[in-house]
């Protein structure tokens, strides 16, 4: 099983470095969610059933990828790998969302935006001569760009978690529990408390 990346040190600088933020999310998703089938297959103990010579008599395909996994192995995987990975990404997204909604006194383009806004207000516009002269598209503050990135990443995260949880449910019998409810139960210590 792949080792999940450690949660980075949460600072505004990390959040505004969108490359680092996206890389962390991509690596975390890649090691757990994108490889969920391989991770689940690694939980199956090979050789539980002895070899049956009659199994070679017919060419019926075996659905080994649908073979259920022991409840203890599933619980251990969810409590030690899956939920901590999800929680780490949630912590990063929540922290960066709070940074995006906070004032940004260190914005390097703040003065440039103010200058452009002032020039746009002082500009004389005669739309009869130039119908496009009235257009002005202000620069986006980096907090606004970060907020949009966080919204997009949260939507991606929801889609990925639903897909992952569906695959886990096929092999680990999640009994119709939604991924958000299972994650919240794990956070409260109701799931896998003895495995922590």
From TrEMBL:
Belongs to the MIX23 family. GO terms for cellular component: mitochondrial intermembrane space. Signal peptide: none annotated. This is Caffeine-induced death protein Cid2.
